[in-house]
Amino acid sequence: MPDLSPITSPWSKTTGWVLAGFSAMNWWALASEAIRLHGGSRIHAAIVVELFKANADNRVLVENRFAFEDAVARLAGARRNDLVEEILEQHKALPQGRREGFVIRIIGLYGRARMPEHALRTFREMEMYGCERTVKSLNATMKVLMQARLFDEALQLLDEASPTYGVELDDISYNTVVKMACDMGELHAAYRVMQEMEKEGVRPDVITYTTLMAAFYKNGHREVGDGLWNLMRLRGCMPTLTSYNVRIQFLINRRRGWQANDLVRKMYAAGITPDEITYNLVIKGFFVIGEHEMAKTVFGAMHGRGCKPNERIYQTMVHYLCKRREFNLAFRLCKDSMEKNWFPSVDTIHNLLKGLMVIKKDRNGREIMKLVAERKPSFSVDDVKAFQDILSHGKTGR
User: What pTM did the predictor assign?
Assistant: First the structure.
């Protein structure tokens, strides 16, 4: 690591500002800009670490969530996990390290840096810093292990929770295990976890039921999925927007667009407003079963319901309209989408341009190409050339 002492460091002036009370946000802006401009080079990444060390007693910095999250994200992006560890390990030893909330933040930051083993070690060593564990820090660690798909480590930690650490599981803990079992494809084990949590006096909530429903529906077990839906309502657990979307997704996969649409009506009756995911599923469902006019009706009805189409809905509409050879409407929606900087897939644009050439709408094709050229980030050179070839072939009649 380069010598960055106040006497010899070319950055001593900046360090002096910090020590003199220079705003934590201002100096962090300088440091993060250094990483951005220099691609996370060793010396500039090291400067960030030294600035953090020099300000270990600066409460404004230590308590500043943004500064830590941004530092970790940038250092991890520069593949400097060694420096991420250096910063976080130093701050674990501060007086704030005796607060569980502060340690939970460090566990989460290790997760963001894709350093799950360090997150787990932090949880295991909490007593070394005089910090009492509760189910909150356990759940934070479980979340990191789950995101890293370290299922064996997560299960081991759960087994140790009560006997080793004196931590009793709550609904969040059990829901994490349910989700983990579902992700592993162990659906019956996931269901048994729900039964076990009831035995332990922890009531399954809407997240428990919805997670299980999604897994059973995804694997084609409609009877179990429907049974969970009914059990959830019977237990006084009202379905949420996510719960309804899970059922609608299953119906669409089974080509039951009309039933999905009926379920949307029931959502409104229950006081739940469908979101963009709901509408996208129903629109796609009607297209898939050949009810194209109904798909367009649902798209138009969105605006009257106060829900604006998002990028995925535009993609769905343009894709299926091209398949239906409704290129005029596909063009209008594609243009509207592109002007919002939402670009359909390369294949969809390709099909639209070919269709516009077939119906002699060269001018519309050029409008699409103009928007393609303005895209940020830009399309690849090969993709742009393929689009241009379609237009040139259309002009020559080839």
Answer: 0.76
